[in-house]
Amino acid sequence: MVDKRLAAAAFLAVSALLTACGSESGAEVAATSPPSVTSAPAATTTTTAAPVPVTTTLAPLSTTTEPAPPPPPPPTPQTTYAPLQGTYYFSSPDGQFQCGIVTLPSRTEAGCQGATTPVPPRPESCMISWGNGIRVTNEGAAEFMCSGGAVYTSGGETVDPPLEVGQQIVGDGYTCISAADGISCNNDETGHGFRIAADSNETF
């Protein structure tokens, strides 16, 4: 009977000892185990890209192109008319010569006045200005002029309009032509005439 009690007491003592050891081991584990760390969720960064500027080029409005107007017609010969019907007055393109086709009571003539060279010797019959122009009449060859003033002019304040290079005037049986080498006038019936320029001339 005593043995059973001793055995029971020993069992209880061993059990108590084991319980105590188990509790101590649990405490040590709790003390020595690193704390459980819960990581906070990473912050989410939202990046918004700046809007890219957009350049819009507007297409030009379509326009209807009008056809180009036709070029103006070439100018007609510029002439003035003296009070006497059928008389023409004009100048050389450079304005150095005043010219005309003139109808007079006793004759018709065409001539140009202005400085030219060479000039033939002055005849004894000329008592006034000599060699300041050439004329051709309806009788004979062309001749240098002996005159005291302007003959071939309409009387205006300015020089009469020029007969441009390549243009001509036909009237009263004469043809006057403007060319690069001067002004020439011919009697259409007789064929006589002249050409006059500042540095040259001829009569025929």
Describe this structure in words.
The structure is a single chain. It is elongated and about 80 Å long. About 18% of the residues have low confidence. The longest helix is centred in the N-terminal third of the chain and has 31 residues. It has a domain of 115 residues. A hairpin with a 5-residue loop joins strand 5 and strand 6. The chain is α+β, with helices and mostly antiparallel strands. Strands 1-2-3-4-5-6 form a six-stranded antiparallel beta sheet, with no helix packed on it.
Strand-helix topology:
Elements: H1 2-32, E1 80-81, E2 88-91, E3 98-103, E4 108-113, E5 130-137, E6 143-146, E7 168-171, E8 174-179, E9 182-187, E10 193-196, E11 201-203
Antiparallel strand pairs: 1-2, 2-3, 3-4, 4-5, 5-6, 7-8, 8-9, 9-10, 10-11
Task: Provide a concise account of the structure shown.
With 204 residues, the chain is α+β, with helices and mostly antiparallel strands. It is 15% helix and 26% strand.
Attribute tags:
204 residues; 6-stranded antiparallel β-sheet; 15% helix
Oligomeric state of the chains present here: single chain
- Indicate the overall shape: elongated
In the sheet with the most strands, the strands line up as 1-2-3-4-5-6
Radius of gyration: 64 Å
- Number of E-state strands: 11
Overall helicity: 10-25%
Q: Please write the string of helix (H) and strand (E) elements.
A: HEEEEEEEEEEE
Terminal CA distance: 189 Å
Q: What summary fits the major beta sheet?
A: 6 strands, antiparallel
Instruction: Please state the structural category.
Output: alpha+beta
Strand content: 25-35%
> How many individual helices?
1
Uncertain runs are 6-10, 13-43
Mean pLDDT: 76
